[in-house]
């Protein structure tokens, strides 16, 4: 189960203060299922944040910033 594999890697990374990406790329179960190129896509930060500005703009439109309680 992919979820269990990723969860195990994530917990190991958290508990041992190690890099999740490096651990995932070194894991035999992961590399059996995903090529290096596919992992590059998964861990592509630019793709992850590509629409961040428009998402934040939409959030501001539906939930305008409130006035500070303490000025």
What do these coordinates show?
- There is one protein chain.
- With 71 residues, the chain is mainly alpha-helical.
- It has helices spanning 2-16, 20-26, 28-33, 36-42, 45-48, 52-62.
- It is built from six helices and no strands.
- The termini are far apart.
Oligomer: single chain
Q: Sketch the topology as an H/E string, one letter per element.
A: HHHHHH
Shape designation? elongated
Strand share of the residues? under 5%
- Number of separate strands: 0
Q: Can you count the helices?
A: 6
**Proportion in helices:** over 70%
Q: Compute the average pLDDT.
A: 92
Which labels suit this protein?
71 residues; mainly alpha; 70% helix; elongated
Topology, pairings included?
Blueprint: H1 2-16, H2 20-26, H3 28-33, H4 36-42, H5 45-48, H6 52-62
Outline of this structure?
By secondary structure, the protein is mostly helical. The chain has six helices and no strands. It has helices at residues 2-16, 20-26, 28-33, 36-42, 45-48, 52-62.
